[in-house]
Amino acid sequence: MSGRRRYSRCGIANVGGRLKVARDVAVWRHAENEMLVVSDEPGTTGELLTLERVVHGTLITIEVSVIDSHPAVVNGTVRHRLRLRSSVASDTGQQPDARTH
């Protein structure tokens, strides 16, 4: 044999999974079901995200979708301004999922 493999190096197919990437964002405005945040990364319209905030020692988790994403200059640096909509309807009285941090 001249150093050749008899088998393939990779052979993974049909693998399900979920990638969770944390990004820091600054919340600029929050009104009803919408909020405006600034991020280092752009968003894609329709993208579903989970926003986590710590309020008085409690982790608040809010499911949101990206409505709009545009580049913006913040303190001389190009960032991305994302308009997000919460999946929780404000008129139903539902509260975001709260977990103790």
Q: What is this structure, in a nutshell?
A:
This protein is 0% helix and 51% strand.
Task: Write out key terms for the chains shown.
mainly beta; about 100 residues
Describe the protein.
The protein is 0% helix and 51% strand. The chain contains no helices and 6 strands. It has a domain of 47 residues. It is an all-beta fold. Strands 1, 2, 3, 4, 5 and 6 form a 6-stranded antiparallel sheet that branches. A hairpin with a 2-residue loop joins strand 3 and strand 4. The C terminus is likely disordered.
pLDDT < 50 runs, ≥5 residues: 90-101
- Shape from CA axes? extended
Structural class: mainly beta
Strand content: over 45%
Continuous helix count: 0
Largest sheet: 6 strands, antiparallel
Query: What's the β-strand tally?
Result: 6
Distance between the termini: 59 Å
Radius of gyration: 20 Å
